Amino acid sequence: MSLIQRDRASLWHPYAPASGNLPLWEVEEADGVTLRLRDEDGGRHEVLDAMSSWWSVIHGYRNPLLDAAAKRQLGTFSHVMFGGLTHGPAVELAERLVAMAPSAEGRPRLERVFLADSGSISVEVALKLAVQFQTAAGRPKRQRFLSIRGGYHGDTFAAMGVCDPVDGMHSAFPGLLAANVFAPRPPAAATATAEDIRQWRADVEALASKHSDELAAIIAEPVLQGAGGMFVYPAECVRVLREIADHHGLLLILDEIATGFGRTGELFAADHAGVVPDIMCVGKALTGGYLSLAAMLCTGEVAETVSRGAAGALLHGPTFMGNPLACAVANASLGIIDGGAWRSDVARVGAGLAAGLASARELDAVKDVRTIGAVGVIELRETVDVAAVTRAAVAHGVWVRPFRNLVYAMPPYISTAAEAGAMAAGMVAAVAEVHDERDAGLLTGARP
């Protein structure tokens, strides 16, 4: 029995039915930006990973600095509980994150760090923290959140509750997700006018004003909405959210899990707007894709207010919180970013994607092509045929994971201009082969 057959007998893959028929490839080796795969028939393929393994492997596979950091930490201890104990890798990581976090004159700094298991959990912690803050500040009725349509913040229950109420999972769990408040999606960055932004501000302000007595915070992905549609919106809209939050005594939570650490061309997407949130979530690229780790950062005021509250603590504590092995690798990853080359790397990758994807605009099946930082997106007019496009892309030497009506790339920063161009060319070729003259009614889609 092959490995893929054994997988189908016992494993359950993300956003897929048990024993589903979506194609699988066995990864036999990964190095740099390359995956070496074996298909169900035993055929071998060498492909460029345009996904950075869901946006996390920004420094490439088998990075020598990250490998060395993991080995060093394994030589001392791989894990200790974080209740009542501390260790060097966690302290160093907190200091690095605080030093890197968005800042602006006159705004409180993000200076307290809570380490979490994953991006979804960091969002859960952020939402808990916002409610505890409002309660400790004497506003216990403030327990709902203002979110933005098109947003995605994770798959755990509180996180699902602030995802888009239509395209998210609300319909699958009726009555179990919190009834939050949803503002319209911001206008698209490529076409937004000053009037569009003004009207959007008015709509969000009206919602915030109507519900201010019951809202704890505003939550948003700044500038780029990820799994909700790879949607880019103006930085001015992030400033609008900051101003509305301040006006109504709400906290501003920015979810930088997908956008943090340079992906959009700034270190954090909030930096495009010059905005400092009260709470920020990071994950994915934090460890360079080596281990699961995320973090929630907040201002000193938020931390101190909650600590003075009746509970006397932030009510969360994962078993693997502050895992030393993950923290050590995260420090190595952030050390690479601190070196400063990420900005030119992201620009190089982005330019390669933009040039390579340009021809997709000529395809009848394509609705839009857009890029920001090291992100490239082909938006189709119909739901993507995930299996067919994935197979076609592999045949062209590229690994992608399409979803909804999108075929997109978020490559490792170490990708050369030629590799980024080859990824884009493979995406365009796959879309052309599968979708350019297909009947949309014949197609089926899948979640990311």
Q: What is the count of β-strands? A: 16
Strand percentage lies at 15-25%
Helix content: 25-40%
Largest sheet, spatial ordering of strands: 4-12-11-10-7-5-6
Q: Largest sheet, described in full?
A: 7 strands, mixed
Order of helices and strands: HEEEHHHEHEHEHEEEHEHEEHHHEEHEEH
Look at the structure and give the mean pLDDT.
95
How many angstroms does the end-to-end distance come to?
Answer: 28 Å
Instruction: Decide which structural class fits the backbone.
Output: alpha/beta
Regions with pLDDT < 50 over 5+ consecutive residues? 439-448
Q: Measured on Cα atoms, how large is the radius of gyration?
A: 22 Å
Question: What's the total helix number?
Answer: 14
Q: Which word captures the global form?
A: globular
Description of the structure:
This protein has 448 residues and is an alpha/beta fold. The chain contains 14 helices and 16 strands. A seven-stranded mixed sheet has the order 4-12-11-10-7-5-6, with helices on both faces. A four-stranded mixed sheet has the order 1-2-3-15. The chain has a three-stranded antiparallel sheet with strand order 13-14-16. A hairpin with a 5-residue loop joins strand 2 (34-38) and strand 3. The longest helix has 19 residues, at 417-435. Residues 439-448 have low confidence and may be disordered. Pathway: Cofactor biosynthesis; biotin biosynthesis; 7,8-diaminononanoate from 8-amino-7-oxononanoate (SAM route): step 1/1. Its EC number is 2.6.1.62. The modification N6-(pyridoxal phosphate)lysine is found at residue 284.
